[in-house]
Specification:
Number of helices: 9
Helix content: over 70%
Keywords: Membrane, Transmembrane, Transmembrane helix
Protein name: Phosphatidic acid phosphatase type 2/haloperoxidase domain-containing protein
Distance between the termini: 43 Å
Organism: Flavobacterium profundi
Radius of gyration: 16 Å
Order of helices and strands: HHHHHHHHH
Structural class: mainly alpha
Strand content: under 5%
């Protein structure tokens, strides 16, 4: 199997719009709060609508009017509006949803997502193309690591898996010539810092 032909797959699987759903599902899985079916489905529905379905609908709208040209590739000019919208949707999720009142872990996970969107937008303003894919996958990996500490569960396999996925996503972005190494590094730093910044409040 030619690994290079497989690498683009990771850019789609770990696209930024899917990360919130992955994090939400993983949290309920390891915390065993999934037994509360109503809470699980309600939060998963909210997260799916605001972070996946609505962004996908807007993407196809932007694609039809020529505001963006690709699902996984975007130049600096094409990034401004989608990142701004992402920040607004994260704000709506954490500000107007009462579902996270008893789940601080998810609240701060999404607050970290909002913070990373702001940092990504600032990067665009200063003409720097930080990797949104690396921001996303590193945010998820850091969140899983934090859950392992907070819930005192040895999520070694999950953490190891995420480290490998970080490598595959980075390789994918380089292979697709979407980013330079420094853009990947800065994206990774934004993803990690955006989650670590709120550990004080819930760990």
């Amino acid at each position: 199997m030619d690994l290079k032909k497989v690498l683009p797959f990771f850019s789609y699987v770990f696209h930024p719009i899917f990360i919130s759903v992955y994090g939400t599902f993983f949290y309920f899985l390891v915390s065993q709060m999934y037994v509360y079916n109503t809470l699980f489905y309600m939060i998963l529905l909210q997260v799916s609508i605001l972070t996946v379905l609505l962004p996908l609908s807007l993407y196809y709208l932007f694609l039809s009017i020529g505001l963006v040209t690709s699902f996984t590739e975007a130049n600096l000019k094409e990034r401004k509006v989608p990142i701004m919208i992402q920040a607004v949707l994260f704000f709506m999720l954490i500000k107007f949803s009462n579902s996270f009142d008893t789940i601080p872990e998810l609240y701060y996970f999404f607050l970290g997502g909002f913070f990373s969107s702001i940092l990504a937008f600032i990067a665009v303003v200063v003409k720097f193309k930080a990797s949104l894919h690396m921001i996303a996958v590193c945010s998820l990996a850091t969140f899983i690591y934090a859950l392992s500490i907070h819930l005192q569960i040895p999520l070694i396999n999950s953490i190891a898996f995420m480290i490998v996925m970080i490598g595959f996503v980075a390789s994918s972005r380089l292979y697709m010539k979407s980013h330079t190494p420094i853009e990947l590094v800065i994206g990774s730093c934004i993803g990690i810092i955006s989650q670590v910044s709120f550990w004080y409040f819930w760990l």
